[in-house]
Specification:
The chain is mostly helical. It contains 10 helices and no strands.
């Protein structure tokens, strides 16, 4: 009996955190041309990320290569590590994978936010909020253009939800800053002057991720 309950729980968790977000991503991608007001912007931002990733794999400087839209990769070097695994895939595959990751990130963000205010039946209310959110601005645009904002959102929320005494506090914010510099401001906003050492830890993590990124790019081009 215990084994059956454990298996059923595993299936339920997998359905909620894997099957649901990727099924919604497939559905969104399937209907994007019929409902989206700007179909030409499909994967607009993602194309510059992938251009940087492909440049690294080809031994080129990722900051000198343009995407099909004429955009350059303008993010910290550490961000390139995020896109290398999908850089050689077709655009349809990239859209489905990144769409699934984005929906999952939004779903987790909603779950964390609802949990933070004490909402019960988290799975039910998360789905109820998630589905209409996918067709509303700016979530719709974020997924359609292949942006990284939803991933950064969930990482920041995960960090914020950690206990103040946790040793992992600020690690995820530092990771976000290593991908896109802007989230580093949360280290100052979330920590008053009396907690400057705590806030500085996020900056230290950002520095580590930046160094790793620079070291990786330098090694790839050497």
């Amino acid at each position: 009996m215990t084994t059956r309950i454990s298996f059923a729980r595993t299936v339920r968790i997998a359905a909620f955190w894997v099957l649901l977000p990727f099924a919604l991503a497939v559905l969104l991608d399937a209907v994007k041309w019929s409902y989206h007001p700007d179909p030409d912007a499909w994967m607009y931002d993602m194309r510059s990320y992938i251009a940087g990733g492909r440049a690294i794999l080809d031994g080129q400087d990722p900051y000198t290569v343009q995407s099909e839209f004429g955009e350059y990769f303008v993010y910290p070097p550490f961000a390139l590590l995020l896109f290398l695994p999908i850089a050689r895939l077709s655009w349809n595959a990239i859209a489905l994978i990144w769409g699934g990751i984005s929906v999952l990130a939004l779903q987790a963000s909603i779950w964390l936010a609802l949990k933070g205010v004490g909402v019960k039946r988290l799975e039910f209310w998360s789905i109820l909020v998630l589905i209409p959110s996918l067709i509303l601005y700016p979530v719709d645009q974020t997924i359609h253009q292949g942006q990284i904002n939803l991933l950064l959102l969930v990482l920041v929320l995960m960090d914020v939800s950690l206990p103040a005494t946790s040793r992992a506090k600020d690690v995820l914010i530092g990771l976000c800053a290593g991908i896109k510099i802007i989230p580093i401001v949360f280290c100052r906003v979330l920590h008053p002057r009396s907690e400057i050492p705590r806030g500085a830890s996020g900056s230290c993590h950002y520095g580590v991720h930046s160094f790793c990124g620079v070291d990786f790019v330098s090694g790839a081009l050497s």
